[in-house]
Fold:
Amino acid sequence: MAEYDLMPKLVGHLDRHMIFPLLEFATGQIPEDDDAKAREITKAKYELLKTTNMTDFVGNLKAELEDLDEVPAEFNDMRQKVLTRLSQFEEDTSKITDLLGREEVVNNLRSDKVANLEFLKKEHEVTIDMVNALYEFGNFQYSCGNYGAAAELLYQFRVLSTDNDKVAAATWGKLASEILITNWEGAVEELTKVKESIDSRLFNNPLAQLKSRSWLIHWALFPLFNDEGSRDTILDLFFSPPFINTIQTSCPWVLRYLAAAVITGRGRTRNSGQHQKQLKDIVRIVKQEAYEYSDPVTDFVRALYIDFDFEEAQRQLSLADELLRADFFLFSAADSFLDAARHLISESYCKIHSRIDIKDLSTRLGLDQDEGEKWIVNLIRDTRVDAKIDYKEGTVVMNHPPSSVYQQVIERTKGGFFRTQVLSAAVAR
Amino acid sequence: MSKFFAGGDSSSESSSDEEELYSEEEEEKPKGQAEDSSEEDSDEDDEDESEEDSDDEGAGKTGASRFLRGDSSDSEDSDEERVKTVKSAKDKRFGELEAIIKAIDNGRKINDWGSISSEFDKLNRQAPKIGEGKQIPKVYIKALVELEDFMNETIAKQKVTPKKMNATNARGLNAVKQKVKKITKDYQDQVDSFRKDEDAFMESEDEVPEPKVKKSKPTDLYLDETTAAEAANDEGFAAVGKGGKVLQFTPESILKHLRGILESRGKKNTDRLEQIKIMEKLLEVANTPTCPCGAGSTTSTMPLDQWKAAEKDLQSLFEILEKNKDHIVIEGAEEWEDDDKPPTVGEGEKYLKVPGSIVSYVERLDDELTRSLQAIDPHTSEYIERLSDEGNLYNTIFQGMLYYEHLQKDSTLQIPQDSVNRIVMRRLEHVYFKPATVVKILEENAWKNAPADAESAVTPAEGIIRARAMLCQIYFLALHDEYYKARDMMLMSHLQESINNFDVLTQILYNRTLVQVGLCAFRKGLVYDAQNTLQEICGSGRQKELLAQGVMIQRYSQVSPEQERLEKQRQLPFHMHINLELLECVYLTCSMLLEIPLLAQTGSSPDIKKRVISKTYRRMLEYHERQIFTGPPENTRDHVMQASRALAAGEWKKSITFVHSIKIWDLMPDTEGIKTMLSKQIQEEGLRTYLFTYAPFYDTLSVSTLATMFELEDRKVAAIISKMISHEELAAALDQVSATVIFRKGVELSRLQSLALTLSDKAAALIETNERTLEQRTQGTANAFDRRGQNQRGGHRGGRGGRGGGRGGGGNTGPRQAGGTQFTGGALGAAVRG
Structure:
């Protein structure tokens, strides 16, 4: 499975702090006795967080790496420094945070940022430097690992600042903070804000747009696989033309997550039509990108929907299952993926076949015969296919009614009346 | 190889280059009378040259004098008088003199220096008699100068050709050389004055053979000395170095000479060859490297040896520039005004700027090579010989590029980016169509010659150059089987949208690239993509024209000679051609693989809309089917057609045999691989065709029967059938238990049903037509139809509209838009644009 490990590709598009959970997960994956590997990952963690302000943690890592009993002295110094800076920042921002905490001040704030700043300046002697200090402080807090505080500070900064560049940066920062404190609702909110800012602010710079979008896509994976509620929004975002193009152009490996998300979304979306559409899109894109990226998940899609090779699909499915269980984002979705994928196989199988041997289908789905029968009954009930089980023969018989000619004629002539009306209206004008 | 050949060659060439020589008409008259064709050709070269370097001061001057006829007519009159007096008085002696000159002329023609030498002696004895010590006859001067020219020419030739002159000739030549040198010095004044009104003189005396007098004063003076030095060198008296006579060629006088040359450059009848010689000498003598700027004048329409000389000159120019980094050649630098002093580096300035444009020189050289390659029959060894010069040229271009990049590093110079772009482009255009191994060799050679400290950086470019560079890269990628990269780049470039706005050459390059991408897709086995990509070029039936590989002879077309000539000029040299027969073969094979199943499908169910993939292919197929007797296939087309028929009848094996027996596949790399790929495709398409054709006659078919019939695996057969069922191409279902295909009954429509369907189609078409009519009437101003876009109807509009670039632009290529949308990954490029 090592060749399908996306870690090296993902880390390039993630923030330091977000990579950490990935490394944690990797630690969990390695076998107990593989010390060298564990050490390697600890080293990676250390290198990763070295530049952050989480001195205690980094110090511990260092101690672990070098088998020291105590945290090396330099980390204590650094810790001191960080603490001084922290208090310094607190001092700098105390006034403004205090102000923003006061009911009557907040009530006076309006939606117009300039006016707000004007108001604060006049009434409470707030300077622009103080506002900017909020930003710095937020940045610092984030670096220390106090994501909640950072989110709060950046939020306050954003309310007041008129500096567009910094606001955009603050939005990214807030998104990161929300993700790291697993506040998914907030994260999705920020996600849309970042998306809008990319659309409007970088309008004239396609390359920067592309880059920002690929970052955003990677960040969005966190809420996508962790929060049921945000899934539809994010999938819609991913399937919007600019983002799907970004995936195709700069980060095709995201297709694994996209495909997995669509497949697992089978039973969950209320709107089955939309699911069908997404499935169709993903099939199309997987086909297009086959030359650039493939892994068991996309191969499964390919085998099932492009080559109609059910045996291959089955093989890929078992590979994909293994893969999913080793993937940070997907391991929790592995079971539902397997289930949904089985559904898709049998759905497609039933569509093409008119008589199926239950035993054969069961092995194809990796189930025993009784389970298989139950499975098929459920399937018939769920998908409302026109099928019956012939128990004596041990087969399922499908009935595929041909599409009616009359229906076709009706379809074709449906728009005619309306168009004629438009036509006559145009003539009359 | 005589000069006559060389001359004839280039004169025919230059006549095909009329548009460049817009002033050539002026030359028409002398040309007709001229005896010595090599001289004549150099005249033209000069004209050519004067244009090329029109930024030079000298050209400006001459241009003025040429057009200010008023001025010269005065001197003309007076001249005529004078000449007439001379004539009447010394008629007889004059006649003798002319006879001698004629003899010299004859001697020249056969290159017989022995006789020339003796005649020249006679001439020298005779001349003073006429002139009676005070006036030297014009004819004499003329002959003198003419001889001198020829002498120099011969010496020059002597250097180039390894063949040695025979002893008599050599002796004669030497004698003449010495004498000429002496005499010209004696009559220096006359020669000079003669030089001044030579034009007038010539025109007044039509009976005299076309005069060949050239060189302005300083040049002449210089020439004598050079000749001496040269002679010395040639004879092995190398001891006479710069020290002796040549001593006076200090940098000061060199400047003077140069100025003289520059000024005379644009004039009628200035001998280019000679000038080149002088320049070479100058280069040798120059101790400051200021002079090389003149070397640029060496590029022009030229026969082989001249081209080579020019190429060498350019090389040495680069060497000199490399050695003397404080001298730079730059466009638009100021001319050094003072001839007498050597130019020095000015206060506070880092460089000594020399006017000139290296990129123009290089481009010119390149163009010349292309032109001569166009003219040479590609099947001769001469072509290959000439082609070998490309390597040298490539090196030169490469050096030029390095030089520019070197200049660019100094921002104070403000070298326009444009020059670098142009030169990089030239370099690219020499390599893009070549396989990697060849390119590697070229590169190695180039770097070998490059100075060690040179570095090359990729430079960004704008507009048309960028487009061309991209196309070259795509072409190269496609040539090396990097289909996806090439395709993605093609899409990302968005060129298909804007290619119509580019010039014809770029459009041709675009077409070439498109074709190459198509061929690449075919090699990869992507039949559908290949067909789509090639459709536009091959479906038009104008491949030759679109790829600039030959002019189509069209029966009813009205092409003015002007257009035809332009088109001829655009033709690519043979070594760059894409094999058209191979192209056609690939295109037809792809079309077959797509069309035959489609035909079978539409044949069995009349309600499916008649979709045509390739009109060209259909037409050929129909023609083929109409024939009563079909003989064994002779050409590629026959093979594909017979293969098509076999495939349509389900005889896939026969089809494979036909396709495999096409000989041209041998030209593809990995022929066996291609054939295997084709066999596989034919098997699969054969199965599909079979199912489409015979499905109505079966109730069930066993999968294993089908598998044995088409020699495919059971699994593959099942997969193909599944695909067809899933795409609703086949009304059937698989029975897993008995491993059979069950064809659904009742799918065939009754007469009434199919008629109803047809009726509904017709109704839809009627509405469509109505809408279109109204749209035409209102010129599209009626916005009422905006809705239709949302309804996803009326998509046929506009699709065809693009065609109509027509013949006007010669190689214009018709609809581009279509080409772009055919790529399935159309969304790709949009990512960048958002």
Q: What stands out?
A: Chain B touches chain A through 49 residues (CB under 8 Å). Strands of chain B lie at 327-330, 352-355, 700-702, 732-735, 740-743.
